[in-house]
Fold each of these.
Amino acid sequence: MISRPWLTIAAAALAWSAPAAASNASSESVASAPLPDAMRAQLAQEYDRVIAELIRITETPAPPFKEAERAALFAAMLRDAGLSDVTIDAEGNVLALRPGREDGPVFVVSAHLDTVFPEGTPITVRRDGDRLFAPGIGDDSLGLASILAWVRALEAAQVSTLHPVLFVGSVGEEGQGDLRGVRHLFTQGAYKDRIGAFLSIDNTDAGRIVHAAVGSRRYRLAFRGPGGHSYGAFGIVNPMAAMAETVRGLYAISVPREPRTTYAASVVSGGTSVNSIPDEILLEIDMRSRDPEALAQLEAQLLAAARAAVDGENAARSIRSGAIRLDPELIGDRPAGTTPENHPLVVRAMAASRTYGFEPRLDASSTDANIPMSLGIPALTIGSGAGGGRAHSVEEYLNIERERFLAGLSVGLALIMAHAEGEPTR
Amino acid sequence: MISRPWLTIAAAALAWSAPAAASNASSESVASAPLPDAMRAQLAQEYDRVIAELIRITETPAPPFKEAERAALFAAMLRDAGLSDVTIDAEGNVLALRPGREDGPVFVVSAHLDTVFPEGTPITVRRDGDRLFAPGIGDDSLGLASILAWVRALEAAQVSTLHPVLFVGSVGEEGQGDLRGVRHLFTQGAYKDRIGAFLSIDNTDAGRIVHAAVGSRRYRLAFRGPGGHSYGAFGIVNPMAAMAETVRGLYAISVPREPRTTYAASVVSGGTSVNSIPDEILLEIDMRSRDPEALAQLEAQLLAAARAAVDGENAARSIRSGAIRLDPELIGDRPAGTTPENHPLVVRAMAASRTYGFEPRLDASSTDANIPMSLGIPALTIGSGAGGGRAHSVEEYLNIERERFLAGLSVGLALIMAHAEGEPTR
């Protein structure tokens, strides 16, 4: 017989649109219940297959902006797992809808297709004891492989959920991708007005619950001027001086410690020869905060500092050959946001994590969940698996010790069952 | 019969070591005399050969630090021209000694072998009317071809000079070469203690008399620190901020207008990704002056500003992961100096230029002559030929209109005849 304690929270469905209405106690008491024995047994049977699929996904390259091959593979795998409504949207995201008992708000469960590794990076998974080594294996092939295992588990138990679940393989989560896949999902995709909650599987630690989105605004500031011979044209404006004054202005800004707000002048380049006044200097700036207002204020201060630096340089030296111009280009825009700690999605994730032996803790980061959080839609990013390390390096690795790995894999499925109100029918 | 007005200045030989002792009037009256008719006729006959050799030299590549092929060609051509004592020294300079009547101080007549163009730059000379186009054709293939023409003219007329003349093809005049060829000549070469005067042929304008050496000191300043994640490590020191403060300190320095003293922050690079605090920023600085003391003072101020910037950054932000270090590297060192306007070498050059229809004017620049000028040895750089343009670009060109070209070619030979006290013997 199957115990079904998760059914006791039918009332919490209301909590989707009214988080404060749910008591922490009731949410947690439900979500901390383990998966039904049959589903847990099904997951355990899946272990070898999950590892095999994980390797296959990892070895299918998905460089930034070139995720199509992995997207096609993931779509085919979702169909194999039992879903029939699988499509690839205009941005390149893989979308697979599993209908619910009601045609209400959709629960998105997503992992990202892209890696940080450029085209041509060698990717052969190497096993060493209980570790698999390969670029991107944990970030985020593991998320994709976890979704496949969960779909098969839901299908095997013929689980019926109250809410439709939309499984997604997203493009452009990393770096310059700037969350383009999930941004499309929420602003232009077919489901954009139907998404009630969002869960991103990204990271190898099933105890890490990312409920706050660190927002970022990134600029490439171009300082352009006439340039000239270092000796013959001495006295004319130099974009280097305007860049330097901008960096100085930025580093004089005081930012709040809480919510944590940061900046960095990170990349600079310009000039062609030591005996020339340069005609262009490019400066990249990263700014982050969990607080959208603090971030907006910092951005305004940066741009004001850059404009003042340019004006100051044009006043300090000759503009007879031309003046310095500032051309700011926004190269990164990840909105900030938070899902409240007492929201049922958070409470259930914490409980599911604890149930399978992890020590859940809340964290803030920049992930696909930034987009829904910034829109006020409940969203989280959680890990799967049994830990790993060296993400974003070619030495990336993943622990796959069987029992711990299955425990980590169970957390996400338990959360889906709880939050989408899943009910096995056999 | 040959007129020999240049013999009337035998007394001016004393002026080699005592410039003020020579009256301008006597020097000029001598040097303004034209070349003997036979030598002028010999030069005129040479026109086609000079152009042919100029093309051959130009099409023999001589990238920075890779002048050996052109050096071998130039050495062979000097032997063909009639000189027997032709060697290549340890630095790669071609040296060809033409003995004098006396074994006294040597008069060096030099042109540089190297170009600014990197290995693989296509170099085929193209003719368009009275212009030849090719990278390096004027800077400084023309100087080398001029020397060959002059040697043949001296040999044909069996000219005997009072002073030995050392013809040189020098390496490393351009950019990072940092005058290494002539520096070697004056500090380590076989003739280093015997050189009484130095004439560099470099430039296509026989009216430009460079009597002042603009000295330069060039630095690559490396600012190095721990680096870290732009968000996670916010608050630690950033080498970008130290670099910026250094640029600011440099641009706050007041320099003399006369003697002209200049600086430029010219090249900057550093940082690997927008979301990282960089661990290294490199900044290149060019400083120049005709006045060695002003240059030394400017250099001291720059280095003090950089040290203060680093100290300030280490005080302003956390050094928990490490402090910013400054590593200054001297990447260019061209000493300043001047040959007085009333020195016979200058006066004779002005006169010779005027004799052949040019409007001579004194100028300051950075050339091979910087080294002897800085050592107090009389030195000049003059042009040859009939003008040109776009030096240091692949569109470089040279005017070769016959009469004007021969007039320009005559200036240097007339100056050699006057200053080395040449006397035709047939």
Note: The two ends of chain B are 10 Å apart (CA to CA).
Amino acid sequence: MRPKMQAVAEGTRWMLRLDQGQDLFAALSDFAREQSIRAAAVVSGIGMLKDIGIGYWNGAEYVRKDLAEPHELVGLHGSIAEADGPSIHLHAALATPDHELVGGHLMRGTVWVLNEILLETFPGRVFGRPIDETLGLRKLDLEPSRLAAP
Amino acid sequence: MRPKMQAVAEGTRWMLRLDQGQDLFAALSDFAREQSIRAAAVVSGIGMLKDIGIGYWNGAEYVRKDLAEPHELVGLHGSIAEADGPSIHLHAALATPDHELVGGHLMRGTVWVLNEILLETFPGRVFGRPIDETLGLRKLDLEPSRLAAP
Amino acid sequence: MRPKMQAVAEGTRWMLRLDQGQDLFAALSDFAREQSIRAAAVVSGIGMLKDIGIGYWNGAEYVRKDLAEPHELVGLHGSIAEADGPSIHLHAALATPDHELVGGHLMRGTVWVLNEILLETFPGRVFGRPIDETLGLRKLDLEPSRLAAP
């Protein structure tokens, strides 16, 4: 059976349940596209992830670590902006089988068992994620139209 | 003096202050029962916990670790559903006296000093937590009435 | 160029983007003062921090550790109350260059790259943070006017 996401709304808030096998970034991108979400915070997320990539920004590049094994997802936070489609920035805290926590900037992850995720959206707004040439990184911009003005 | 919880609401949101000595799961269950909360996200939580149990799901059972000593509660996230009374699913990140983080699926915990917890409720909704026979685990169901239909 | 914060509101919620070089506590205090925020939860925060101080409460004092190097900010949660100006209580989870997590009670931090922070405010309310003489600590009080009554 194909993995399937549940989503229910209350005002500007969405509770999501992602199912085993879903790619976390693809699932959130698809959802943002379907619901025309162009500005949101990923407020909370638990469950498990496997096939995980986490990064540490050393000022020039992400020092990457890959974790194939399932880990408990203990914290998931970030934002959804728009930069040629949904731009999703997530940081994650993950527990190993020994209950130690690892984490950082999340580069990829596949849902294991399930994920319970809470989004808070900002309807009518568009967050941007333009490249900051000085840092060599994309940075969240809460008011891109204001900066774009001459 | 008996430990005592404070709770204030803003719209569909509750801010809670739990007091030293309270059992975290019992306090949240009692609160959900009193306020008829049948669908909610535990969005944020800090403070300290002691007499903690954390688990890692290895596919068959929770590999459990118990921490008697007080730990800083650095992250607390999850959901409140209904399954013969309030069903509370929490993951926690906890700091040791050496400032290292441990955590995972939270199985028990007693409030130390205080806990500051934010809930976002979904009034009018009932989240379920039925057993998934394939996984041998209870899984959040955001729309149980839809699945229960013939 | 002087570091500059962005802030956009949706109802009682604020999304903030702090910029490299800002002192995290000073920036949040200034913002609370400007917006007359006297009761709020810091719900979510990611980005990077450097010049960090974290503490573990051992029952008598905070056992402190200082981290000069930039760390990924993986979790940031807490509350804003009022006690002779804004009183900000934060706990943080931070990733080292080796992707290990450290954290606890946050005592100081300077924004690195950026911080994306979500606040939920309780307009019309004032949270207090009076000293608990028994514990020797300031403790969040969600209804200080009620306790102040004779």
Note: The radius of gyration of chain A is 16 Å.
